[in-house]
Specification:
The structure is a homodimer.
Chain A: H1 3-10, H2 14-22, E1 30-31, E2 37-38, H3 41-56, H4 61-72, H5 78-87, H6 100-115, H7 122-125, H8 129-143, H9 150-171, H10 177-211
Antiparallel strand pairs in A: 1-2
Helix pairs in contact in A: 3-10, 4-5, 4-10, 5-10, 6-8, 6-9, 9-10
């Protein structure tokens, strides 16, 4: 298909597609004349992922480029390719190493991973963005004096393990390894607000059960 | 205590405390001289909540003011006070009503709430920020053609119900109704990055289980 059709089918303007091509987020089409190129279904699928990252997930362009490079790296096995692609996503501010709460939070997070039996990747996990995200959040809770010890965190870790089963079930609805890696990245980002919205709705329901008086 | 001690015990600079006083986030102290006021433990606790909202949760000052007004409104029962305080938190961009995906997403979200048996607040929920957050996220998944129907969402809703039990257990560690409402708001915000970080770590573990090849 030509650029105009790619734009129509993807819902992305031709100007934006040209920008993604210039920024090397989208691979070039096959040249058919000096000024025109031909695009295919792979371009359409890639555009969908770019929109998920940039328009919905608000991932910066340079970060999106790193994520896509990891998605495309088929020299790795499926697991480490998927891990590298998710790792390239933004993970919020890094823990503040000057703060003593960070050290305590790191110990607590490591202990938690051991207790829930996430053994395989303990050494890898401790250098991952997701681990830093957890440590920064736990340190903030400690610094402000809110409850957050292993006993408090365990139920959340167990729920996270169940969520990951649902996440990977969704990923496995896709057939090819390339599509699965793309879906893993997109669904990690796109299901975050689903999860946070549902948690707040569930909190309202649970609060009603416990606290509502009268009417 | 005087301003200097409040600053030392809270870890918030006197300049920032004065700013919070001017912005009416922090109630004024009890005047002891023409230029000095006396602060108490309530001010310390309130400062902690303000930091949770503004410094960690990155909630805008005007939004924080609305949240705190709802926290302080003791004319309501505990459930609706807690609900109003969480409702005043930011919930991301509103769903785009011009997009046909939004209407379909709203039907799906309503159906989901019925199926998980969150009956009490269906009418209230449909006007809540949390519901709009869910609808906007589901609409984005539909628009981009990623899997997201009732069967996909049900496991997430069931996990959210379990998370809400953990959330409200934390809230009930506090004794007074006022402290419980404050904690509900702070913990809603502060546990979000805990949850998202743990989900990504759990995804890596689950991916290892399913996809890893070789040693």
């Amino acid at each position: 298909m030509r650029l105009a059709e790619l734009s129509e089918r993807s819902g992305v303007s031709t100007a934006t597609i040209k920008y993604y091509l210039r920024e090397r987020l989208l691979p070039p089409g096959r040249p058919v004349t000096a000024t025109q190129s031909e695009y295919d279904e792979d371009h359409l699928r890639r555009l969908r992922l770019i929109r998920a990252l940039i328009q919905v997930g608000r991932v910066p362009v340079s970060t999106a480029r790193d994520v896509l490079a990891a998605v495309d790296d088929d020299s790795r096995d499926q697991h480490s390719r998927l891990g590298a692609a998710v790792e390239a996503l933004p993970h919020g501010p890094r823990p503040d190493e000057a703060d003593p709460a960070t050290d305590a939070a790191r110990h607590l997070a490591t202990d938690l991973l051991r207790r829930v039996g996430w053994h395989f990747n303990l050494r890898i996990a401790e250098h991952s963005g997701a681990f830093h995200m957890l440590v920064a959040a736990v340190a903030a809770l400690h610094r402000l004096g809110y409850p957050c010890d292993t006993a408090h965190l365990l139920p959340y870790a167990r729920q996270a393990a169940e969520l990951a089963v649902a996440d990977l079930d969704l990923v496995e609805e896709y057939e090819t390894p390339a599509e699965q890696v793309e879906a893993a990245v997109a669904l990690t980002v796109l299901y975050e607000p689903v999860l946070l919205g549902l948690r707040r709705l569930a909190e309202a329901e649970e609060s009603n059960r416990r606290f509502r008086t009268g009417g």
